[in-house]
Amino acid sequence: MATQLKDRVTTRPIGANVGVEFEGVDLNHLDDETFAAMRTALADHGLVFVRNQQLTPEQHIAFARRWGAIDINNYFPANGGHPEIAEVRKAENQQTNIGGGWHTDHSYDQVPAMGSILLARETPPTGGDTLFASMSAAFDSLSEGMKATLRTMRAVHSADHIYSKDGIYSKTDQAADLKGHDLRTRAVHPVVIKHPRTGREILYVNPAFTLHFDGWTRDESLPLLSYLYQLGMREEFQCRVQWAPGSIAIWDNRSTWHHAMNDYHGHRRLMHRITISGEPLS
Prior knowledge:
Largest sheet: 10 strands, mixed
Radius of gyration: 18 Å
Distance between the termini: 34 Å
Mean pLDDT: 96
Strand content: 25-35%
């Protein structure tokens, strides 16, 4: 159900556990009150979505800076002349997309990114949706015993198996577009973190970048990790975003996963992403 925020600005939930769409806003002329409401919605719901925006690269960067400092992506191609903007793209003749599996951005960094701001530039006629999932809702659904156990644990994250010279993307038709093959990443984070604004507990592991539990082997970790991943993928924790040119999504990387659907072969999709710096996890 839509909620009137002010004047012509309304909000409506996208999913039961994640996502709020703002309608009637112009991000180039965003007043402080509406921006504060967006910041609160992001903390509470993990995802803010807005349609029909006309942003130049410079305006995209200016909007991002209202949220915080910008992290420069080490792997994706940069938009020409704007290193703050990473291009997430798939050409008509490519089969592999970027982000085609459940993950959260930058969990492999020592201080993971707060969020990402993704602007659709070119979209296929159908397909190319993005799924989001709430890791707060996933954690809430666990038994008290499992919650207590997970609170004592830490997990190791890395991107090396994805982006290195012999990583997953090196064997695909995205290989020539990506960079950072010689970088080495390793971070150890709590399995359960608290959101810095809401204090809500969040399950902080993800299928793409979490390797194993700290002090455990990969083989020992996989049964429990697989259970947690299947939990996080349950439909009741998800929402689906359908893109069009000018759509923009702001999501919280601490409290959500996302998954870019790869169902538009033969068509081009171009997205501009800016990543917002985070703070140490607790």
